[in-house]
Amino acid sequence: MRHVRASSQHLIHHYASKPSRLSVSSSPRYFGTNRSESLDSLDGLLRGCSRVQQCQQVHAQATVTGSTGSGFLASQLVSTYARFGRLLDAQMVFDSQSQSDCSSNPILWNSILRANVSGEWYENALNLYARMRKFGNLGDGFTLPLVIRACRNVGCQGRKSSRLCQIVHCHVIEAGLRTHLHVSNELIGRYAKLGRMVDARKVFERMRVRTTLSWNMMVSGYSFNCDAVAALDIFRRMETEGLEPNLVTWTSLLSSHARCGLSLETMKLFSSMRKKGIGVNGEALAVILSVCPDLGAFRIGKAIHCHVIKDGFQDYLFVNHSLICLYGKSGNVTEAQTLFQEIGNKNTVSWNALITSYADAGLCDEAFGIFSQMERPVFERTEGKDVISWNSIIKGFGMHGLGIKALQMFDRMITSGHQPDGITFVAILSACSHAGLVDQGRLLFNNMVSKYGIEPGMEHYACTVDLLGRSGFLEEASEVVKKMPMEPNDCVLGALLNSCKMHTNTTFAENVVSRMSSLVSESPWSCTLMMNIYAGSGKWEDSAKERASARSKGLKKAAGQSWIEVKKKFHKFVAGDCLEEKNSGEIFRVLGGLTNQMEDISDDYVIFLKLMMLD
Fold first, then answer.
1. For 469-495, how does the pLDDT look when each residue is reduced to its tens digit (9 = 90+)?
2. Half-sphere exposure of 177 (CA within 13 A, CB side)
3. Pairing of strands 569-574, 561-566
């Protein structure tokens, strides 16, 4: 407290005698004839401050006139200092207040909490919140969103972070803010980041009023957790309830489908979005560019590149990074290199994009060469190797079946002092799966929490189930699914059933469907997989029954589509459609020729064709 008085005295001597551009005067006549008018005058001056020096002068004048004891003015001083990034000065003002002011003034607490959260002093914000509750102040609709935001960024991971969120949620209920709009939106965002979409959905359903932001938070949350089906469900429900999805909603929906590998559906959604007259932003363009290689739609990618230039998105770094990856995946590393060179202010992400482009083109040695450049003086102007750099090179080796090299890079990453993140483990577990490195993958998955403090997410479980299932450890893979702390999504269950299909184990597949009937029985993809599993085992009658069951439930898988370009004209083929074009006879003759060639290639073609006919 003595330090606070000394600071205040220094402030008085230093600023009270200086003329201010705000024309502050210590004359009682200027500040009004009573305390209320004086406070109003000081408040007006604080709101008009454009420099921190002006704020300090007003603070000095308030000290001279004895106005700093006002909780209202103290709140304004805290907010103004925070606006100029002077958190220590803001804290000094707060600490100078009496205990009675602190216990009875929620505005003062909200001001100091907002100052700390805005200044990214998250741990200090939580400590202040703990002090606030000791004074018996439960907070209000402005306090708790700040606290939830601090929890989101405080740095603790896994169960500790989840537990912290639960505690604050209990405080929300205790304060009677269970259905409060802003509090609920923050809780949805926090639960989504923790992968607890069931809890996020409960908060959402209890809300009495939902804004477009509330719906966007849910779509974004499902996108983050790779649940495209649920994201689309929320999107459609939003439309039926009379709310118009905005650009943010559409971008989140595109992202959810792209993250789940649903490239064709992503492209269809983008087309629908454009037909509805929705504009585009850099994020949407980056998502669409990322799915073009999966569809072999490099011409579309080039067309979007033209759109990027035309509409001025070429200065967006993340759009450039997506373009570099696009050209790398198309094998055109020369164009990728040219785009990289054209980036004015290259950062680590720029280098990561170039590494990824070479890795995607199958040029792993060249990718590693670029990666090694990060140790050279030329790279010192950027931030140096970061986790993303290591993730890119690990992913590159893994996707080309070089699992041992991916593991070696992971070990080098650890020894270099870099801590892996969730994306690192997706890359390395996927690498182990593709290379059949079961023991190494199993150990890495077990070490995620125990050694690195990273709570496995949906993608980690999907990779691990795929790893175990591919190698025939179906029972162990099933146990991993059963022990998941969240409900498995389509990716996880699909990996398990795909493993049953791979090993033609119909009995185990039936047991999986039976045990998890509530999750898979009403899903089109699970019915399709079961049809294929039966067909692969020669149980055509059971396969037909499964198909009939799916039809009776009204389940329908999205029809497969393909395109072929002939003389600059695209022809689209949709499974189940009839060709009515005038040149359909010619198309069938070409397809017949291709069929004959494929029959000559493999004696197993007939079985393969029967399986494909079921997809």
1. 888 898 899 889 888 887 787 778 778
2. 22
3. antiparallel
